[in-house]
Amino acid sequence: MKNLRTGQSLIEILIAISVMVLVLITLLSLTVTSLSSTSSARITSEATNFSQTIMEQIRNNYLSSSWDQFLTNCSDNFSNIDLDQDQSNFFDSPIISCTDTEREGEKKVTVIISWTDSKGPHKSQLEDIFISRSQ
């Protein structure tokens, strides 16, 4: 009598299940990495937008005041800038610094937004040069 084998052996089924599990684990890992990167990019974008908003307020201050008034605000690190409470609650307090450049009649303003998440500390930095309009 011949022994006809019909159907799948137990080893073949285990191999097929193992391959499917490996594929699913790989897909799950890629999905988690993708979601993490998307979240990180979103927060970085929000920090950049926050620093741009602050810099726009500083530019408006520069355009609407005299150079001497701008220097006064500069030496006070622009404490008169309005911060968006929703963003300032998530990020650390913005660091706004005003420093001299190599040329007279110029000031370099730097806005730094920093935050910490599960991947560690991060920062978004924006710089601009302001020139005395009287020169």
Word description of this protein:
This protein is an alpha+beta fold. It has one domain (10-131). The protein is built from 3 helices and 3 strands, in the order αααβββ. The protein has helices at 10-64, 67-75, 85-90; strands at 95-100, 106-117, 120-131. Strands 1-2-3 form a 3-stranded antiparallel sheet. A hairpin with a 2-residue loop joins strand 2 and strand 3 (120-131). The longest helix is centred in the N-terminal third of the chain and has 55 residues, at 10-64. The mean pLDDT is 85.
Task: Itemize the secondary structure elements and their pairings.
Blueprint lengths: L9 H55 L2 H9 L9 H6 L4 E6 L5 E12 L2 E12 L4
Antiparallel strand pairs: 1-2, 2-3
Keywords:
3 helices, 135 residues, alpha+beta
